[in-house]
Amino acid sequence: YFLCTEYRTVSGVAGPLVILDKVKGPKYQEIVNIRLGDGTTRRGQVLEVDGEKAVVQVFEGTSGIDNKYTTVQFTGEVLKTPVSLDMLGRIFNGSGKPIDNGPPILPEAYLDISGSSINPSERTYPEEMIQTGISTIDVMNSIARGQKIPLFSAAGLPHNEIAAQICRQAGLVKRLEQSDNLLEDGEEDNFAIVFAAMGVNMETAQFFKRDFEENGSMERVTLFLNLANDPTIERIITPRIALTTAEYLAYECGKHVLVILTDMSSYADALREVTSLTDITHPTPDLTGYITEGQIYIDRQLHNRQIYPPINVLPSLSRLMKSAIGEGMTRRDHADVSNQSLDLAWTLLRIFPRELLHRIPAKTLDQYYSRDAAH
């Protein structure tokens, strides 16, 4: 039995953070209920504990909070999200509340959004390919189940369109026995997609909703939308709620789940805004390139030439591709087909006189330009 105690000890407000004094036994990540003077109730989470002081991040923003009438109640619980198989085909806000005018979700369980770590030594090595329907990815940068891979992009590039296309076309690939043919498994009932958009504007949110609904992929998608004008703190819990939902669909419902998160830059900026640490490094590289198994590079020059999708193959990389392709997984000649495009490029370059190839290093030309290098 936990006795909830209300405190009226707000000592300061800083952005989305509220500082409380004289609090007995606050716990890290504990959920608190904040009641304003006008009766409005908001939720928050303990971000830092120092003796009897607690720093609370408020999910709905701190506007209107004062130190005279505001009361804070510590619940003793961590943040949990309701999950259910009925979440497929539904649209939620960044806090996991339905926003598609549909009926309420009847939860089958309430799960801690912080989750628990997986023992790496007990994990099955990724050796099964996910087909995206984009040749530059499937042929030359194949993605395996269980792999994390970012789309490196910039403002004005069609990363949202590519993410939506992957969501529409993605499917599992399994080998037919004693055959070089592939069986596309993407339409089976055991495949689902969890799509979370963080910090997007209303136009982008409408694009995702319209795209999924018009192309018939919405029935296998759970869509979370955190808008740019939503509270910053909500942006931090959105990917956690999405991943918790994905884990439930995978581990409890037996589904293969593809998770797509966009835009990690907005998530990283939100972390910088609410952090209580004195870390001067930027979280974007730590959350993308440093912890992933490769990258898909979206190139502005290709985009300016109206090439779609403008994916530059050479800077792109899939570190788990070698384990997910070849005989017994995709096709026996998959690796050869991937490498043949480079041979084809040199065949085209040899049409031009060597002295015109100014942008290619001399050592590279010495090694590959001669006709003998082709054999």
Automatic annotation (TrEMBL):
InterPro entries the UniProt entry points to: ATPase_a/bsu_AS (IPR020003), ATPase_F1/V1/A1_a/bsu_N (IPR004100), ATPase_F1/V1/A1_a/bsu_nucl-bd (IPR000194), P-loop_NTPase (IPR027417), V-ATPase_su_B/beta (IPR022879)
Record-level GO BP terms: ATP metabolic process; vacuolar acidification
Domain named ATPase F1/V1/A1 complex alpha/beta subunit nucleotide-binding: residues: 133-277, 278-318
UniProt domain ATPase F1/V1/A1 complex alpha/beta subunit N-terminal: residue ranges: 10-76
Gene3D superfamilies: 3.40.50.12240
Keyword set includes Iron: no
Domain of life, source organism: Eukaryota
SUPFAM superfamilies: P-loop containing nucleoside triphosphate hydrolases
Keyword Ion transport: yes
Alphabetical list of NCBIfam families matching this protein: PRK04196.1 (NF003235)
PANTHER family found in the cross-reference section: V-TYPE PROTON ATPASE SUBUNIT B
Stated family: Belongs to the ATPase alpha/beta chains family.
Protein name: ATP synthase alpha/beta family, beta-barrel domain
